[in-house]
Design a protein that fits this description.
Helices cover about 40% and strands about 15% of the residues. The protein is α/β, with parallel strands linked by helices. It has 3 domains: about 140 residues, Rossmann fold (3-Layer(aba) Sandwich), CATH 3.40.50; about 120 residues, Rossmann fold, CATH 3.40.50; about 80 residues, NadA-like (Rossmann fold). It has a 6-stranded mixed beta sheet, sandwiched between helices. It has a 5-stranded mixed beta sheet with strand order 1-17-6-5-2. It has a 4-stranded parallel beta sheet with strand order 14-13-15-16, covered by helices on one side. Helix 4 packs parallel to helix 5 and helix 7 crosses helix 15. The longest helix is centred in the last third of the chain and has 17 residues. It is globular.
Length: about 375
Amino acid sequence: MASIELFDTVQTTLPEEYKQRTTEELIQRANEIKSKLGSRLFIPGHHYQKDEVIQFADATGDSLQLAQISAQNAEADYIVFCGVHFMAETADILTGEHQTVVLPDMRAGCSMADMANMEQTEKAWEQLVEHYGDTIVPLTYVNSTAEIKAFVGKHGGATVTSSNAKKMLQWAFKQKKRILFLPDQHLGRNTAYDLGITLEDMVVWNPIQNNFEGNPHEDVKMILWKGHCSVHENFRIEHVEQLRKEEPDRQILVHPECTHDVVRASDLDGSTKYIIETIKAAPAGSKWAIGTEMNLVNRLIQQHSDKDIVSLNPEMCPCLTMNRIDLPHFVWALEEIEKGTPMNVIRVDQSIAADGKLAIERMFEHV
């Protein structure tokens, strides 16, 4: 949190009055404030958000897409970002000085993003450069803190998304012999493998132990940060094997944040956008098992009733931190804006924002 300055009011506990209001009252207030503020208010909603919140979104999408759209809405004074902390940071980096980014619930974080902090990364970089010399370019998944984006930007690297990871790895390998990939080892491993890099030429860096896991030999091309998505790691190979046994005609579609064995055993893998578009284009009557966040899976089930869709893990729960933003917190945030006292304002320090924006812009240049 050192990179973030929180201005105005930072939430403590949701006032009791919001817990007492009915759903109908909360919906009415949200609509009233949206109507009153008009174009001064912009509400981006991530695909993984609850339906009770996503219904008010002016745009839905993945984190970077929503940050870009927010930046394009120059007339909006307030960006109420329905997502998690790192997404609001990215929005603040890309939006103008006159715009205020608000996160309705400050508890909405990302366990993956929290798996790489600046202290760990600086220690790792020092040892990696000592071991491999000036042969490494850092890349970070956009699911990372502003500080990590800034570190990558400062050291000649770029951000990546799950949609453009292949292109960005190809770009990075033209810069240096090796890539340090933060903070999700699975996206890094799966993407590199698809580009023909063997598992033997990848090594994991453990930021807790501050050392390598595996053999850091001279031919290593990928240094994978030991981080992961807590949701996507819950799709396991036994789920795939059970489904193949019971329903061999059901296609399996997973996100590349899943483990390598699950991705390899599935029929298709791709970004959230890819998953949505694949289901949309699938023929009526087709059967699918999807390995991604449950709010999105449930929404796809509702939107495509002509198709047979289930979760790859039948016991899967929605992302707990994504679920932090609920209707009461959302309306609370809107009413504070209406009063002129916005709370949970996200401000990234200018020096960090500049380097973070550099990493993002490098990505835009090459995709």
